[in-house]
Design a protein that fits this description.
TIM Barrel; 45% helix; eight-stranded parallel beta barrel; alpha/beta; 2 domains; globular; 16 helices; binds iron/sulfur cluster; 385 residues
Length: 385
């Protein structure tokens, strides 16, 4: 496949439907199979999973809902080496073998070094992770090698300069909010990928769902311009319109999303100047109203010694701030999360583990202070024993 010439759409398996929202491993297989079937019927075939998604169980779920039900040539499968988790070269081998077994396949169409950034780069160099994936490609166990990248453009350039010959593509976070944000700098990263002629896969085109549920004022602007287009379709078209992008991923968990999003790509049209102007205005409105730019990826929660439900608290905080700071059901949700055996924002011991894991480079400890101010000043806050 000539990656540069295609515009494609992939099913992200990071937020699959579950039966119990408090347990990410309770897969709703009936629903997942329906979504996968529909996606394939609409003419798409790329599925993106990872070793760590859904409490390290997503690869097995993909096997059950996809690999065991379709011939191998009917789909393309991507998964990722967990750079935070592997210890040494031997471990790379062990995890890779486990992943083939988890997924029930002999090879991966696409394989990525997962969540590359400063915190893991030295470890990858020392343990020859770039050579490892290239060797697996030479052995025929991987068709195309890449990395998902969540750091600053300078590091991307350094890696592509040094290891570009081992990598076929890069996966970047691209959406119209992060395009020029200082903590992500998507635009610069895309320019660097283009400079090194690395085709780009887009992750987080809707910024963890933020761009499917925008403030009313922003939605009105989009609806006035295109009454029939969904809010999400603007985000997908923005991501796919960028130079060098050949694939856009979306983590879908309803049929409505699958049909709407596949429709956007079946009739894909790049944005024109008038549409870019609408997006610029929409981004301005959203930026004014988003207090914490969290994508709900959950990377921060695994190592938290206090089991603080960081992304859920940020979502509640954003929701309150979007409605001009007025209190509503958000306080009840906050209390329920705490009662469900999670630490309160004020339980944070400031160890900083979460910030090392956050691909968005958020000052989580500082934001938790704001969450605490908002939610724990109320007399109804339960006290944990
Ligand atoms: S800094 Fe606070 S929220 Fe972050 S991992 Fe440590 S205890 Fe958890
Ligand atoms: S705080 Fe960072 S790591 Fe945690 S869910 Fe949000 S974006 Fe992900």
């Amino acid at each position: 496949m000539d990656m540069m010439k295609e515009k494609n759409f992939g099913f992200g398996c990071m937020r699959l439907p579950v039966l119990d929202a408090s347990d990410q491993t309770t897969f709703d297989y009936e629903e997942i199979e329906k979504l996968f079937d529909c996606f394939l019927e609409q003419g798409f075939s790329y599925f993106d999973t990872a070793y760590t998604y859904h409490g390290y169980q997503a690869e097995k779920a993909v096997k059950k809902a996809l690999v065991d039900r379709y011939p191998r040539e009917r789909f393309q499968l991507a998964t990722k080496m967990p750079l935070r988790d592997f210890k040494d070269e031997e471990d790379l081998e062990k995890i890779f073998a486990e992943q083939l077994e988890n997924c029930g396949v002999d090879y991966f169409d696409f394989y990525l070094l997962h969540n590359m950034g400063h915190n893991v780069y030295d470890k990858c160099c020392k343990n020859h992770a770039f050579d490892f994936v290239k060797n697996k490609k030479d052995e025929g166990k991987i068709k195309a090698v890449g990395m998902s990248f969540h750091d600053m453009p300078e590091l991307l350039e350094e890696i592509l300069e040094k290891y570009g010959d081992r990598l076929d593509f890069v996966q970047l976070q691209i959406n119209y909010i992060d395009w020029e944000q200082a903590n992500v700098q998507s635009k610069r990263c895309v320019e660097i990928a283009n400079k090194y002629q690395k085709p780009v896969i887009v992750m987080e085109p809707c910024k963890g769902g933020t761009l499917t549920n925008v403030p009313e004022e922003a939605e009105n602007l989009m609806k006035e311009y295109h009454p029939d287009a969904s809010v999400a379709s603007w985000a997908f078209r923005f991501a796919a319109s960028q130079k060098g992008v050949f694939m856009v991923l979306s983590g879908m968990n309803t049929m409505e999303q699958v049909l709407d999003n596949t429709g956007t790509f079946q009739n894909f049209k790049p944005l024109d100047e008038g549409e870019y102007e609408v997006i610029r205005k929409v981004a301005e409105i959203i930026n004014k109203k988003t207090a914490v730019p969290c994508t709900a990826c959950e990377y921060c929660t695994h190592g938290c010694p206090k089991k603080i439900a960081i992304p859920q608290y940020f979502a509640l905080y954003n929701s309150i701030m979007r409605t001009s700071g007025s209190f509503s059901s958000q306080q009840v949700y906050y209390n329920n999360i705490v009662l469900n055996d999670h630490g309160k924002a004020s339980d944070c011991i400031k160890c900083g583990k979460c910030e090392q894991a956050c691909p968005q480079h958020l000052s989580i400890r500082e934001y938790l202070g704001k969450v605490e101010e908002k939610f724990e000043g109320q007399s109804i806050i339960p006290v944990r024993k």
